[in-house]
Each structure stands twice: as C-alpha cells, then as structure tokens.
Specification:
two-stranded antiparallel ribbon; 85 residues
Length: 85
C-alpha cells in the first residue's frame, strides 16, 4: 500500500480572503482530526488565492466532511471536494 492511498485530503475553494490556516483547521476539525491545513497564498502579493487544502488523519473525518452538503465560513459557501493528491 502506498502512502498516497492513505491521504484523506480535501480541496477547499471559494475561501474568504480573511481566512488563514488556523481558521481553516479549526473549522474542519469539527469533522475529525485534521493533520494538516493550508491556505494557498500569492507569494508576491501576500494575499490568499481563495483556496486551500485540508488533510485528515483518518477516513472518518474525511468522509464526514465530504458528505456534508454545504460548508460555509463567514457566510461564504465553500467548494469542497477530494483533492487529486
């Protein structure tokens, strides 16, 4: 079994620009243990690009977050789908 098969990683799009790594991890930890959360930033501007990735340490958290119909942070509906590792 390869390590990639055990990654429970979600792509999270349409993030408010005010959301950072800590807020992203905090929100998704409601579904299970988050082993990593990252927001992608524009290196030159230092601003959020509006998307990020959340990795769960187990399948339960990943499935729980994946199966929720609507995710929203600060009133903005997020685009959540399994990431292509």
């Amino acid at each position: 079994m390869s390590a990639a098969r055990n990654t429970y990683k979600l792509f999270v799009g349409n993030l408010p620009w005010t959301i950072g790594q800590r807020e992203l991890q905090s929100y998704f930890s409601n579904f299970g243990h988050v082993s990593n959360a990252s927001v992608v930033f524009d290196k030159q501007l230092g601003l959020s690009k509006g998307y990020g990735f959340v990795t769960f340490s187990n399948r339960d958290g990943f499935n729980s977050a994946s199966n929720k119909n609507t995710h929203s942070i600060e009133g903005r509906v997020l685009s959540v789908q399994p990431a292509n590792s």
